[in-house]
Amino acid sequence: MATNPIQRVRDHAHDSPLDLDAARTLGQLATLPPSTAAPYLSLSLDWRPQGSDPGRAPASEPRPSERRSGRDDGFREGTSRRPSRQVFEREVAKVIEGYGPRGAAFDSLTADIERIGTFLDEELDPAAQGIFIVACSAAGVFEPLALGLPLPTRLAVGPTPALGALARLIEDHPAYAVLLADQHEATLSFITQATRGQSVALESTDYPRKQQQGGWSQRRFQARADERVAAFARGIADEVARALDETGVDLLVVAGDEVITSALDPAFHPTVKERIIETIRLDNRASEREIVEATHPLAEQAEREREISAAAAVRDAVGAGGLGVAGAEATVTALQAGQVETLVIGDDFAAGGWADYGLPVYGVGEPPSEHPAGGDPADLVAIALEEEVIRLALLTGAEVQIVHSAVPLDWVEGAAIPEAGTLPPRSEAATLLDELGGIGAVLRFALDDEQSVADV
Fold it and tell me: What's the distance, Cα to Cα, between the start and end of the chain in Å?
């Protein structure tokens, strides 16, 4: 038997200006207390630049009338090359107009907008591709996140943070691991937001060394070499199992040449094998960018398959009676009771709702004229239900699964082009969820019979 050939194991924490632990921050934001007097401002931005320069476009030449009137003082700032910066400026102007010209909400939002502008212009690292910010000056809240992937550009104002955009990014792009190995070294990299956050590197000895003529026979040498590869594979497998258990990552891509991947297959523990989503060929000298480009689509595809399983689980749980709910009203009821284990919601689901945060109690539709729980009707406020259900799920420790509705179109030569005016195709998971009202949940424990009926 070959001795353990692993010579060194090194853990690396790679420095990054990005906020890679966004899931922890998401959970903290969900616990922020509601604020009806001075609302939260929630902002998500696609921070990718227009063109190759992330700065500002050159200023235009002053008009002759400006020169004559003296309005041109020699400094004219150009527009931002980040299109979302311009969208933000337009949208906040509308917000201020709606809340002005004075009052607690106006003062808080004005301070929030000024603070956000300072962050974007002076504090944000240019490596960021997406931005997520929750701010409420009146409550002393300013939580900015610089992210490695873009977000949709949206601005929301409400009594609680709008967390849907951040929750979707985290859920759509789960952290995953890539094991890149050959017969002499291996690196296990953990990828979050298309960025390597940490890694574990293993190096082996050179045993057995190739001998000159008169040394080992070729057959004996090959046997010893095979033993060394198998022993190295077992050492790698043990280290991978340890690292995956410590991090909680449950998606793994194995990459390398055929010799090492064949040796790794019998060495992996069953709990590791069930996390492997793909085995690919990749040069061990591949850069971080090459690793991400080769593996990120695989992790995304695994997430799409999870969405199908989640939607099917809701359907089956509803059909089983009492273990699942479908539709907005039943889902909100289950969330309030803390019964939801997994919330499944379509990315295009939207509905109005209401809340009394003091009790608290929530409902679907317009705020009723009479308080359903006997409270003061003046305490009922309108909410975006699609945002509130995500916050409630996070508060109660439920898993959130946001289902993609769109299907990526693979343009193949000869494929038919959809006719104008026709609806785009929907994903399998979205089609399943449509039958349940666009939203549903798998429950931790059963509801009463009358509550478990789907309100589809």
Answer: 64
Q: State the pTM of this model.
A: 0.85
Tell me the β-bridge partners of 56.
Answer: 80
Query: What is the CATH topology of the domain spanning 6-14+173-286?
Result: Nucleotidyltransferase; domain 5 (3.30.420)
**Residues 221-248: pLDDT tens digits?**
566 777 888 999 999 999 999 999 999 9
69, containing H or E segment: helix 64-69
Share of residues in the chain with pLDDT > 90 (%) = 73
Is it true that domain 304-443 has CATH number 3.40.50.1780?
A: no
Residue 374, phi then psi, degrees to nearest 5 = 85, 10
For residue 378, CA distances in Å to 355, 369, 370, 402 come to: 11, 9, 9, 33
Q: What angle do CA 112, 115, 119 make, to 5 degrees?
A: 135
Extended strands (E) in 182-330? 185-192, 195-204, 252-256, 276-280, 324-326
User: For 362-399, what is each residue's pLDDT tens digit?
Assistant: 999 999 999 999 999 999 999 999 999 999 999 999 99
